[in-house]
């Protein structure tokens, strides 16, 4: 029988996604540039369902029912263009190419435009959850034409993760690059979440004097409350792990240089272009870069820092609670920033992204899945025009209540010399957003002084300039 879906690119992600479709009862055509991978897949997992192995692109395309649905899971960048160019000439009007790789949304916009002109539907789909997710249920963020969503919907809903209430973690995000954009912001938020968790760990270790195994217990407790999430859960697992070779805590034998594949950097670069402050994500990306600058760190290793005593048992317990509050409030700020970024892009590109849907499909399958996202979903659904999560009554109240402890945690970090760029940037964002007057007024004065860039007044309409170099009289600058 003809295959309902095809997967080309059978490295870990493609193979697992193909198996996921087959296990759900679909007939899956499978193809890979190097045919050995296709043979291996069928030899090892052929018993899991109906696979139609194809050696050539022609065989692969011929195996698919019309309109054809083919998923490309190859290395992002040039390989994706090469594969699209290989298949597009073999396809017919209305066929659908899904790119499930980690493409940059600008590439997806370009590919979608060019394929649309050739009558082919192109769906840039963000897929999160790593290899385990691909096999057992990822969160899937498809962009592209609405008709292709209708054609893909039953298949994607079937293989996607299910949220606690049973709804599939996939939804049509919007046209062209919307899906890959949202996936990029997901990864940016993931960076921010991970950085905040790392800072909380560092504080518990340095200020409270807790050992990793004890910190694992603290995280396990946090995971039963409002911080309940996959990342907190695995943090406890990693901290509780002992290195077999040395008997030391695993976290003490791992080199402290964090690596990155680039989606966090893309998020920050894009945020700069859109003019949306995402300081939590930016600090997380910079923290990873800093950790890798061995030369700089060595050059600064002897610089003086404060000398502080580890807290006693009672104060340490109180401090741990303050750190939980700081972590939670900062997490709300990072998500609010990520949400603002999606709002801005949706407006800029006319995508019409439903932010309640985004929260809903991140509740399961993806790396940032968390109980918290159900509340974000509810807040966005209750008011689709919500300017920021901080304007939601419940979040505002929680962050407001956490605020004194958050300040104490950040102030303590500063006193102890523990770097907390994520926690402190989040607090600075909170304070800047709630400020009645910002020193931006002074910045405008300086700009007018050295560059005649003009300023606006609080009491009158119009643009003004002060003749700083002459008699300091004020003139209208807008004609
Ligand atoms: P890789 O990114 O390692 O890519 C390997 C696959 O790409 C192989 O099938 C390879 O074929 C194929 N390929 C590379 N270059 C070409 C080319 N020029 N022409 C044809 N095929 C080519 O595989 P992953 O499974 O790790 O990831 C697949 C995609 O999913 C990537 O875009 C990745 O960013 C994304 N992704 C990965 C996640 C993960 O956890 N790994 C999570 C979410 C998304 P061959 O066997 O012939 O070399």
UniProtKB/TrEMBL annotation:
6-phosphogluconate dehydrogenase C-terminal domain ranges (all copies):
179-469
Say if the entry is tagged with keyword Transmembrane.
no
Q: What class of enzyme is it?
A: oxidoreductase
| Pfam families in the record | 6PGD, NAD_binding_2
Q: Which GO terms describe its molecular function?
A: NADP binding; phosphogluconate dehydrogenase (decarboxylating) activity
- Which residues are annotated as active site? 183 (proton acceptor), 190 (proton donor)
Tell me which InterPro entries the record gives: 6-PGluconate_DH-like_C_sf, 6PGD_dom2, 6PGDH_C, 6PGDH_Gnd/GntZ, 6PGDH_NADP-bd, 6PGdom_BS, NAD(P)-bd_dom_sf, Pgluconate_DH
Asked whether the keyword NADP is assigned, the reply is: yes
Q: Which residues bind substrate?
A: 102, 128-130, 186-187, 191, 261, 288, 447, 453
Pathway listed for it is: Carbohydrate degradation; pentose phosphate pathway; D-ribulose 5-phosphate from D-glucose 6-phosphate (oxidative stage): step 3/3
- Keywords of this protein's UniProt record, alphabetized? Gluconate utilization, NADP, Oxidoreductase, Pentose shunt
Example GO biological process term? D-gluconate metabolic process
Positions annotated to bind NADP(+): 9-14, 32-34, 74-76, 102
Q: Which reaction does it catalyse?
A: 6-phospho-D-gluconate + NADP(+) = D-ribulose 5-phosphate + CO2 + NADPH
EC no. given is 1.1.1.44
Q: Which domain of life is it from?
A: Bacteria
What is the protein's quaternary organization? Homodimer.
Sum up the protein's function in the record's words: Catalyzes the oxidative decarboxylation of 6-phosphogluconate to ribulose 5-phosphate and CO(2), with concomitant reduction of NADP to NADPH.
Family assignment from sequence similarity:
Belongs to the 6-phosphogluconate dehydrogenase family.
**The protein's name in its UniProt record:** 6-phosphogluconate dehydrogenase, decarboxylating
State the organism of origin: Streptomyces carminius
